[in-house]
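Example 9 (inverse folding). The structure is encoded as follows.
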């Protein structure tokens, strides 16, 4: 094979048509370190994708890797369902000491299956069990996963259709700024709850993302979140925050909802929790709601010990506030870059959206965001699009990236935009 040829034939022949990211990034990846990846021809890529939020600390972090190698070499237990293990004990203790206690959060930890959709399913199930109610309120453009329960609270029409059955016992309400004609969407929501003629029953729970990762990088305001919490309290509805994508530092704090000053009843986390890209999920539960009976919700791959090892090492980043401050500083740099970009290239009709390092540009020009992402890939940068019509290009660098990495990424993005809007297209 020559140096630049890409051979995807085997994947095309044998891997299902459902594959998707390999179509946006059509090369065969080989190695990765920090904010860089290399394909099998040795071409380097800057990673502004971070495994869709599963690699917030970049690839193959040295400290996590050493801890894992040491654990594996010592024949530490790998698989143990939900049996007690030293690796799990160390994680639980350190999560409580480093994350929960300093933030004054009191939660019990449930380990569902290892994915985002597993934690969401467990949260919905528990909310229904606790309240004895059936319905869940979710929000426009929310995304919560691909299994039936999670799909039923997901907005995207194509993804919902994939269920192949009616998705029931959920009601969709407008997310912050969904209705932009000045209507206060939460007054509207409350009217539905208080009026017996609304056709909406008091739900078991409301579920939302503080910043919608797949639904267009829409950030809910802190006031909106606070008001939701108030409404939930008033009507005795449980508040579930899906922090699968926005959590673990992505928006500038460990939990994305911290600056809003709210205390959700249930929190869903996965993606970057293990720190190393290993599958791990956690459902945090207000202690008095933990009415599960033993084994009532189970799964073979809960509490993967290798993931506990790297997750415990990852918590070192959160020993004090230094890391959060650095993320917030970088977030400001990215925001400035994006604002300048929209000013400098009015042709893209762009608007900056998001919060922290979960940020992007929404462009009014159809298909432009996808074209920018594709051009950036050709030039050696990986980023994805978001939104119901892929109208946002989304900057998701590792949260521990350095300035040099950010600047390299900025150069490629600007060159891609310039190429698409200023330079004549030769076909
Ligand atoms: N919730 C949110 C907010 C997500 O972004 C995702 C994945 N993109 C999920 C749930 C589902 O996670 P998983 O793909 O691991 O099932």
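The amino acid assigned to each position is listed next.
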């Amino acid at each position: 094979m020559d140096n630049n040829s890409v051979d995807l034939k085997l994947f095309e022949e044998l891997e299902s048509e459902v594959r998707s990211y390999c179509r946006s990034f059509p090369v065969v990846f080989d190695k990765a370190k920090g904010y860089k990846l290399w394909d099998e021809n040795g071409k380097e890529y800057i990673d502004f994708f971070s495994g869709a939020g599963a690699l917030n600390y970049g690839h193959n972090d040295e400290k996590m890797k050493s801890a894992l190698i040491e654990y594996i070499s010592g024949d530490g237990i790998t698989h143990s369902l939900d049996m007690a293990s030293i690796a799990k004990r160390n994680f639980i203790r350190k999560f409580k000491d480093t994350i929960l206690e300093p933030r004054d959060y009191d939660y019990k930890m449930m380990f569902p299956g290892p994915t985002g959709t597993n934690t969401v399913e467990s949260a919905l199930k528990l909310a229904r069990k606790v309240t004895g109610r059936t319905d869940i309120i979710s929000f426009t453009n929310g995304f919560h996963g691909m299994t039936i329960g999670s799909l039923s609270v997901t907005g995207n029409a194509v993804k919902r259709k994939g269920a192949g059955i009616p998705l029931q016992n959920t009601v969709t309400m407008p997310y912050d700024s969904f209705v932009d004609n000045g209507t206060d969407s939460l007054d509207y929501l409350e009217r539905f709850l208080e009026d017996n003629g609304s056709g909406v029953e008091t739900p078991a729970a409301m579920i939302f993302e503080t910043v919608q990762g797949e639904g267009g990088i829409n950030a809910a305001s802190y006031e909106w979140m606070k008001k939701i919490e108030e409404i939930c309290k008033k009507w005795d509805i449980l508040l579930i925050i899906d922090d699968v994508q926005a959590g673990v530092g992505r928006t500038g704090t460990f939990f994305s909802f911290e600056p809003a000053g709210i205390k959700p009843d249930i929190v869903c986390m996965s993606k970057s929790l293990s720190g190393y890209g290993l599958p791990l999920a956690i459902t945090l539960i207000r202690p008095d709601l933990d009415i599960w009976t033993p084994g009532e919700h189970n799964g073979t791959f809960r509490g993967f010990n290798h993931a506990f090892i790297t997750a415990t090492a990852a918590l070192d980043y959160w020993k004090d506030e230094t890391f959060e401050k650095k993320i917030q500083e970088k977030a400001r740099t990215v925001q400035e870059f994006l604002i300048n970009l929209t000013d400098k290239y009015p042709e893209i009709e762009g608007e900056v959206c998001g919060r922290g390092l979960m940020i992007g540009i929404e462009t009014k020009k159809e298909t432009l965001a996808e074209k920018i992402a594709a051009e950036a890939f050709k030039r050696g940068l990986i980023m994805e699009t978001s939104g119901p019509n892929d109208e946002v290009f989304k900057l998701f660098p590792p949260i521990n990236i350095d300035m040099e990495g950010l600047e390299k990424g900025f150069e490629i993005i600007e060159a891609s935009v310039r190429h698409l809007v200023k330079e004549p297209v030769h076909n």
